[in-house]
Amino acid sequence: MALRAMRGIVNGAAPELPVSTSGPVVGAREQALAVSRNYISQPRLTYKTVSGVNGPLVILDHVKVFEGTSGIDAKKTSCEFTGDILRTPVSEDMLGRVFNGSGKPIDRGPVVLAEDFLDIMGQPINPQCRIYPEEMIQTGISAIDGMNSIARGQKIPIFSAAGLPHNEVRMSMWLDLMFHFSIERIITPRLALTTAEFLAYQCEKHVLVILTDMSSYAEALREVSAAREEVPGRRGFPGYMYTDLATIYERAGRVEGRNGSITQIPILTMPNDDITHPIPDLTGYITEGQIYVDRQLHNRQIYPPINVLPSLSRLMKSAIGEGMTRKDHADVSNQLYACYAIGKDVQAMKAVVGEEALTSDDLLYLEFLQKFERNFIAQGPYENRTVYETLDIGWQLLRIFPKEMLKRIPQSTLSEFYPRDSAKH
Question: Where does the record place the ATP synthase A/B type C-terminal domain (predicted)?
Answer without folding.
Answer: 319-418
